[in-house]
Structure formats: structure tokens, C-alpha cells
Amino acid sequence: MCPVAQGNGNVARGRGPNDFQVWHYDRWVREGGLAGLYFDENYLSEDRNYLAGGAYLLPDERIQPGYTYLGLREFNKRLRYMFHANGKPPPCLWLHTTSGQPVYAWMPDVAMEGENVEPASMENDYMECLPASRLRSIGMGANLGAAAMIMCQADRHYNESHSPFTIPQFVGWVLAHDCLPEGAAFWPVLASELEVWHDDVRFLPYWKEGGGIESSTKDVLVSAHVRKGHAVLWIVNTAREDRRATVRVDLGKLGLDPARTIAFDAETGDPYDLGDGVLTLDVPKRFWRAVRLVAPAVLAKDQTFVARFDAGETVADDALGHRYPKPLSGGVLPKAEAEGKTGKGYAMDAALEYGARHHLAPERGSIAMEARFDNTAAGVLLGAGDLRLSLNKGSLSLALQRSVETDAGGQKRTSPQWQEAAKADTGATAEASWHHVVVDWQGKKVEVRLDGKRLLAATLDTPLVPPMARGRQILSHRLRTQPPTVTFGPVKGAVLDDVVMSR
Predict the structure, then answer these.
(1) Most buried residue, 27, 144, 262, 283, by most Cβ within 10 Å?
(2) For 40-162, where are the alpha helices, taking DSSP H only?
């Protein structure tokens, strides 16, 4: 410990303390599987250890302190080498700070900032308490040399009077400055759909001209994250009144094919017109809208999701929403290792779950698949919302979840229960074969076709999926909202291939 200054665990960063800590961290990595380290509140502390050379005594015996800067930098250089030598890929080092200290001294992979920054009211919102000047100077990864994650204190210190507004406001505001929002539950849902983690993503800031995007409306800013075939525009209205915003988009400069590019709201999926390269939309006061520009790679008209599994992967070949299935324990993605109708297929012994946002709509749509099964197969072939399509030893049944009133000890309660709505013979034999299965719906009317034949039909109590939502209505632990999903399986022994969703 450092003589005199012993608060907050301050250490005189000489060779001895560094050797001691790095040696122990190395043991944790080798023997305990440690994959990373997080350091909290990394202030540039004064070093008062005159015994180790970090400070010296003045003639009047007062201590003239130095800084721990060089010792801390050496410590973190060695930590980075230690993780690398043990085969641990970054991100390995995370740090948290609450002030504008020289983050480069710590060389982190991820830097968290903004713990002591939070709105106090609707007037003192995030655009006031977390101004662009702060974000551009000490918040952006381009300046820090690390992924910049800004902490959402409006969520952590929830205030009913303003947090319902300032939490979602925070997300678009920091992303318009190429910072990652932390603490807003719905952001990871958008992030999974936008795939902004790709190495070829370019950030086009609103303060630089010539990037291919330009706001023509006073007080409206527009930044973008762009990669091959995709872009998301962060359109922010800084005025204290609503604005009808006009944004000029040069698709050629963004690397997008004008003949194939479509524009839609990143939250609700609502389409936008891109006629003559001009985007016009309403943006609420002190708020934002995110617009996605997508040039589909393999999607045909009305298709929203295509997963062929041919290469042995369960990631969709192309999709308007999230392409990745729910991972297995340990974060591992399930593999398609069975023999498919063409290439590889997915063995349905375990369920395969995808997000339904941007893929399915309540008004109308379809889910099509190729499924290989025999007359012994039993299990859930498809589950979406309050619908469940099941195989049961040669038959195909359609069940709906309905609210049923029950009487328990004189107390009436309403609870959801699965009820069979329709059932039919599949014609399957003892020899497994491939079948083309399609679930179509129009409003609450749903039907199932097997190998081109209309086999089952029913009427839903509620739409198959809820309407698309914004902000905390997408995902919020407080509001208990969740994004919809669609699940295939489990059906032991069956194989899934060529999943296509349309709307």
C-alpha cells in the first residue's frame, strides 16, 4: 500500500506490486479459466510513496507526490501480454471511470464512462447533462482507443418523472456519437439486428461533410453506421419542439445499391420512401429515430428471413431482423450437422429459437420449412406466439393457447391453457421423408399446408405476433416486455431445412 494515501486501495505502482499481482492473475488464468478483468473507478491517483521513488520529501518534510501513471501503464501492458500468452482473446481488460482521465494509460478493450452523469428532469435531459462536447472529447472510442460504453444512470437511478423518456433518449443520443449505451435493456435487441460489431463498420459523424448523409432541417443531426449492404441512420432532433426532418442520402457513397435498397424504421419496421435519395420523417422533440437501409442479399420479395443451413451453420443466410438463433449454454451457437434436403440440415432433437422482430407481422405472413420425419415422430414442430404445431406419430395437430376461466374453491381465475384446434393425418410412413410445411395467417385466421395441401385451419384469439414496438416496449424488465420469438422443435429424430419467413 501507499504510505499516507491508503484510501480506495491505492498502490504505489512499482515493480514489486506489479510482479505480485500479475503473477497471481496469471495463475487464475491458467488454473481457474479467468478470461478478463474489470477495474472500477480508475482515477489517476497521486503517488505519495517516497520510499519507492514515486514522490520525494521537501526540505520542510512535506511530501511532494507524483502520479501513478507510468506504473499503471506498465501494469496494464503486462496484463495484456499475460492474457495473450495464455491464449485469451480480447476483450480482456475493462475499466470504469467517472472523469476525463487519460484512458490510454490503462489501454483497456472496453472503457465505461458516465456514472456520475444523469438527468435531473425533463428540462435537464441527456442532451443537457451529457452534451455533445463531452461525448466527442472523452466518450468516443476513436479518441479513447477502446470500445466506449456510456452508463445509463437514468435507468440505474430510475425516476418515474423523467426516466421513461430519458432512458430511450439516451440510446439514440450516444449512438449518434459512436458510443455504446449501457443499462438500457432494449438496446441489445437493436444491436443484434443491426450487427454493428462487424470489422468493416464505418461511422459517419454528423459533424463531418461528404459522407453521403446530410440533414436539411434545423436542429436535426444525422450520423450513421455503415457496412456492406447495410446502414443505420441516427437522426436526432435537438430542438424542444417536434420536427419534420429531411435527410438527403447518397446511397452510392454509402456503398448501397439504389435498385435494391429498402428503408425502414429500426424499431417498428415501418417502411420509408427513399425517392430521389430524400428521406422525410417526423422526429419528436429532444429525441431520435433510427432508419435502417438494407440491400437484401438473398431475400426475395416479401421474404424477411432465409436460413438454408447448407454450410452447417444455423445463422440465417439473410434476414431483416436478428439472424442468429438462441445460443446453447456457454454462449455456443447450435450447429446444423444432419443431412439436409440440400446440404446440411438441423437435427431437431433440441429446439431452435429465432427472434421474430422484423420477420413476422400480425397482419399477415407465413413460415415455411422443409421437415424430414417418419410416422413415429412426436414433438413441437413449430411454436410462435399462442400457436403450436405438433407432430404425434403420424398426425399433425394445431393447438392454440386460450384464456380459460377456472373455479378453484369458489374463486374464479383466468389462466392460459393449450387447446387442440385441428388435427389431421400426415401420411407419413415408417420410412422418413421430406415434407414441405407452411403456416400462413391473415389477421387471426391461420392455416397449415403440408406438401401443397391445405391440412389444418383455425382462428386465433389474438394476432400471432404483437405489433412492433419502440424503446422500452421492445424489452424492459420493469415493464416486463419481451420481443417475440419463433421456435422449431424439439422433435426427436426429425430434421429441419430451408426455413423461410415472409410478411
Answers:
(1) 283
(2) 69-85, 126-129, 132-134, 141-144, 153-156
Q: What is the pLDDT of residues 410-447, one digit of tens each?
A: 777 788 889 999 999 999 999 999 999 999 999 999 99
Give a yes or no: residue 1 inside a domain. no
Q: Using an 8 Å Cβ cutoff, are 312 and 334 in contact?
A: no
The answer on pLDDT for 72 being more than 90 is no
Beta carbons of 182 and 195 less than 8 angstroms apart: no
Q: Which cell numbers hold the place of 502? A: 415472409
Residue 240, φ and ψ in degrees, nearest 5: -95, 30
Q: What is the DSSP letter of 5?
A: -
Domain boundary among 254, 277, 294: 294
Query: What CATH number does the domain containing 289 carry?
Result: 2.60.40.1180
Look up the pTM and report it. Answer: 0.90
Distance CA 408, CA 415 (A): 12
- Domain assignment present for 267: yes
Q: In terms of residue numbers, what domain contains 37?
A: 7-188
1 pLDDT above the threshold of 50: no
Mark whether 141 and 253 lie in a shared domain. no
Q: How far apart are CA 494 and CA 435, in angstroms?
A: 11
Same structural domain, 162 and 133: yes
Asked if residue 251 lies in contact with residue 258, where contact means CB atoms within 8 angstroms, the answer is yes
Q: How many domains does the chain have?
A: 3
